[in-house]
Amino acid sequence: MKLMKLGQPEDGLKGISAAEAETPAAPQAGEIKVRLYASSLNYHDYGVASGAMRSVPGRIPMSDGAGVVEAVGEGVTDFAPGDHAVSLFFPDWQDGPPAVADFSRTPGDGIDGYAREYVVTPASWFTKAPRGWTHEEAATITTAGLTAWRALVVEAQIKPGDKVLLLGTGGVSVYALQIAKGCGAQVAITSSSDDKLKKAIELGADFTVNYKSDEKWGETVQAWAGGTGVDHVVEVGGPATLANSIDACRIGGNIVLIGVLTGFQGDIPTAKLMSKQIRLTGIIVGSHRHQQEFVRGLETMNVKPVIDKTFPLRQLAEAFEYEASGQHFGKICIAI
């Protein structure tokens, strides 16, 4: 089978190379064999591939994987040959409260990922894909889609009429826009690109603000939300954006921190956070049960992911370069 692998961490994207390996044998008891057809890029994958998040040389990257079940091992009842399946970011976290705090068992980071044609894994490492979705569409669920779902539905418990602030127009934020609108919420979204803000409006955004031309965008969003602030913020920036997000959020509102695009540490206006009695929750993706519930939700919400561009597997490095350029709106996919 064909696959892509990483080089030395210091080589970054230039170290990504094509390789071949034997196709995995038939699945054993409790396992499934999946012919992978698609993956999608996430900030975490870029961090590993670029060397910013060090992994072992030779690691097969990519946390997202979608394809067709070709064979099932003894005792497997959740899948049958021909089923369309999509991978889990935390394959060992099946249910209950968070059980992991690192990426040692995350495909594409601590263990080999899905930039390859075939994989044999425990059946519990996958869920079924939504009915009628392409493999590229399904591949966006694992990381970006499930993060948006958990932030809004599981943690924020969004309801019709709520006001939501989303930061940027990357994969998670665009997914969150679609989920929030599907739940009947009103949505404000930020970007440094007026063209991307126009696309967000086409997807249903109720209010947009360019954070480059409006440095106090948090106060601007607060004013849009009736002067009291939004109910929920999906915070992807971290230290450089959190102060504005607190300004935008209402008293007793929720901020779900799902990214650190502006850095890993920085100043936080703790007094304002406390005085506004805002709940700040940090999350990383979700569990097997969360993903099953998300898939069921997608099948009833009439939502499809926004895919900006698809690259062939051999052009994985070019796909990461495109991601790093910030030109994309929504998800970048890999056809395998």
Automatic annotation (TrEMBL):
Residues 12-334 form the Enoyl reductase (ER) domain. Gene3D superfamilies: Medium-chain alcohol dehydrogenases, catalytic domain, NAD(P)-binding Rossmann-like Domain. It holds the Pfam family ADH_zinc_N. InterPro entries: ADH-like_C, ADH-like_N, ER, GroES-like_sf, NAD(P)-bd_dom_sf, Zinc_ADH-like. It comes from the Bacteria. PANTHER family: PTHR45033, ZINC-TYPE ALCOHOL DEHYDROGENASE-LIKE PROTEIN C1773.06C. This is NAD(P)-dependent alcohol dehydrogenase. It comes from Alteromonas salexigens.
